[in-house]
Structure to design on (153 residues):
């Protein structure tokens, strides 16, 4: 089932959609319903920050529905942009594909650069340096923090 036009900023304390549910808006942006994990670093969700697929200790267990902004508890795979402040263990939507303005500046980069979580800090992205980096966005206007998010659904 595909959802159109949901309230992408909603936060749920109980599961309201199937984890991994995909949605879209009229602008062609895609969203995914996920659970947030503050992880070992107790990194709170910030609307407009990047999040990554949760992987305790940096070792992936294959989860694609639990996200965190704690880069040290991810395997360096970008999940998307948080649409709201989701509490630990709560549920909400992330933008997985489409244009976004990030809350936190990129750690480096210029317009047109491929962006990755690898080498960045919690909740943001850095310029990709290796072919093995997961590319999850492209800088559209790096100084204005505008990116084209390209995460897998």
């Amino acid at each position: 089932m595909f959802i159109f036009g949901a309230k992408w900023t909603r936060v749920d304390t109980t599961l309201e959609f199937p984890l991994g549910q995909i949605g879209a808006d009229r602008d062609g942006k895609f969203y995914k319903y996920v659970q947030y994990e503050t992880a070992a670093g107790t990194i709170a969700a910030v609307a407009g920050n990047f999040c990554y697929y949760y992987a305790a200790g940096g070792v992936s267990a294959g989860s694609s529905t639990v996200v965190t902004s704690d880069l040290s508890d991810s395997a360096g795979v970008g999940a998307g942009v948080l649409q709201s402040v989701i509490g630990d263990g709560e549920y909400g939507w992330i933008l997985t594909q489409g244009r976004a303005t990030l809350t936190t500046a990129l750690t480096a980069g210029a317009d047109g650069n491929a962006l990755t979580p690898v080498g960045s800090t919690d909740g943001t992205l850095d310029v990709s340096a290796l072919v093995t980096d997961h590319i999850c966005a492209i800088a559209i206007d790096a100084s204005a923090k505008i990116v084209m998010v390209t995460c897998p659904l």
